[in-house]
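Q: Could you fold this chain for me?
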Amino acid sequence: MATNKADLGAAPLVVLDQGTFYFKTNPTNVHKLVTTNNIIPYMRLFEAFRYVQGSLFSHELLVDVLAEQAVKTEQQLLYYLVHTCQKAVLLPETLCCFVLTEGHQLPAFKWEEAYRYSNAQSFVQAIKQSDYHEEIPDRIQLTIGVDDGLILHLEALVHSLDKNTDTPIDLYIIYASLTAESISRVKFINDKLEAVTLILRPIPKESRQFIENINMDKARLPIGTYFRIIVPEVLTDLDRVIYLDTDMVVNASLKPLWQTPLEGNFIGACEDSLVFYHRRVNAESVLFGKQGERYFNAGMMLMDLKLMRQYSTSFYSAQLALDTADVIKYADQDVQNLYFYGANKQIDLTYNYGLEYVQYTDRPLSEVAIIHYYGWKKPWMNMVTETFMHPSRRPAMHLYRQYHNEMKAILGDNPDVISVILTADQAQSGEFERCFEGFLTQTYTNLEILIVTAKGLTSDLQTYLKTIKPYYPNIKVVTGTMAQAVKQSQGSYLYFFNIDDLLSEKTALAQLVAACQQGVQVVYSGYQR
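A: Sure. Below is the predicted structure, expressed as structure tokens.
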């Protein structure tokens, strides 16, 4: 402690239970700073922070705390010591052995009403008691954070916005670095939109420095996920904005969301599906406990930027992220939930509807304003070979692809139609969906699929086609011969395939068309049995 000039030190402990030692080690293996930002997560996760035995602190500090606070438990005492001290550290050395007996058990964490994850809750209490009045501009303003990889998945979101809005929208695209090709692509997309205007906004160096030192080892995500924290400092000319993730489609007007009063809260957000999951299995969040019942998904946030700048929430959130990087699981989403606990307004789920809700609730997709494909299972993945997708979730995946394909057509990315002719008389149950997924996830999307059958389709194939055809209008059934299918085809190119086979490479058709455009008329490719 003297080396670190700290007036409070807590160490991991070893537990002796029925003759066996259990070592509770410090995962950072350094003199980790203990701050008002991470004391509650540490109390939940480290037993050493639930009582004062094994902790070392100055006599003066203890006197100051007891003079100011009505302390009833050792856990409370340690909480207030951290809030009062000049510097507290979590030591790497194991200095204390806790002997478990029937009457001497490790204390469980207990939430107290006086506890605060951050200063945001106190800020909001003061705002609500003031004469603050939020102003809501007429024009809807959105923002997304991107890198070069996310530009590839921009089409579905912007087209769904453009197609379903009933009022003009400005969409600010914030980024740290983009290639000239990506910037050109955004500008090209913007020229094809009618009601939505795309505005590129680079993140200034001074704003990036808020987040560049955050340790991402545990989250295993790019640092760009923390762009949400610095939105107020990037869009300094805006007082209000809706933040959206790129893996979304907007299925209805956002005007009701835009006009939602935040009532002095910094943000408005929707419940995350983790809350729904914990309810179903009667469990609690490890990091948030019962307070996790208000855990929100950060993929859609209605933000009062004016208030957030006034109270420097970007700075405080970034500092919280630095202090908790070794214990959080969901990167900036956990950080936002810690910082804005008690300082956010809960918004109706229709504005951030995850696939968990699609599967377990009865709300039709037509009544959902924003569908969010969070998690690792994405609509551009093959739902048979890359991931299993529950049947109830598949219409949402097809809807995303529909928006994507429509925008690709508007952009004219694939001007030549490929007529895919599938022979279906040998179709095996369960195999044909694998085949269709191979084509429906191709990067070349201007496809006409003709299914050829001489004796009629099986009932399960008919059911499958009835399910997907609303999303892919260029699927046709030809009863007859392959020659008749060729005669009915409209494509510049023909591609023959068996419905029991698999097109495994997503760029296969794009490669074949590129070869044809070099002046050849027939292209062959290899196959694997």
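A (continued): The chain has three domains: 8-115, 140-354, 399-516.
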